[in-house]
């Protein structure tokens, strides 16, 4: 299915839509033609019938439907005919988890084009949304690696252990509850978000042990502040 690029959609209209209509709106709004063209110029080793555009659409569908793994994306395609149609897959030709994984690795190899997609969306948001970027909030969130961090030789060489909520080293103040520390093995997504529209303005992905303050100044500069 060929998706024609169009301006960012109206969010109220997006909320009113259901199922594959939402997916179509998002695919139309994403400025991903440069990325898709670059991937199509490469030798695609997937099974015949797995187009670059279809694989990209399947991953976006997984994000919209809060799939937690590539296996969840496969199950989504298996049970939802409308989403399969938007992605261009038939019931007997659904990409496997391994095929999606190979495609995801190809995407990672084009991080510069993925970041350009994000930057183009932010630029368009500044033009369409009054006051976008005027009031910013900063935060970070954890991303767990699909790897065992307790093994001596982890399969994910870039992931690290991170911790949050370590509490007060000198003891909690009166009325303040001591928080148990939370640990995870993986990465940390540092975000600058528009406080009014609750949309990201800039981001950086680092190993989980990287401090928020180390990256905040550069992210704020990138956000135009």
Task: Explain what you see.
By secondary structure, the protein is of the alpha+beta class. It has 2 domains: 11-127, no CATH class; 133-222, no CATH class. 42% of the residues lie in helices and 16% in strands. The protein has 9 helices and 4 strands; from the N terminus they run ααααααααββββα. Strands 1, 2, 3 and 4 form a 4-stranded antiparallel beta sheet that branches. A hairpin with a 5-residue loop joins strand 3 (182-194) and strand 4 (200-207). Helix 5 (70-79) packs across helix 7. The protein is globular.
Please give the structural blueprint.
Layout: H1 11-16, H2 20-29, H3 33-40, H4 52-64, H5 70-79, H6 81-87, H7 97-108, H8 111-128, E1 136-144, E2 160-164, E3 182-194, E4 200-207, H9 212-222
Antiparallel strand pairs: 1-3, 2-3, 3-4
Helix pairs in contact: 2-4, 4-5, 4-6, 5-7
Q: What attributes does this structure have?
A:
about 220 residues, disordered N terminus, alpha+beta, 9 helices, four-stranded antiparallel β-sheet, 2 domains, 4 strands, about 40% helix, about 15% strand
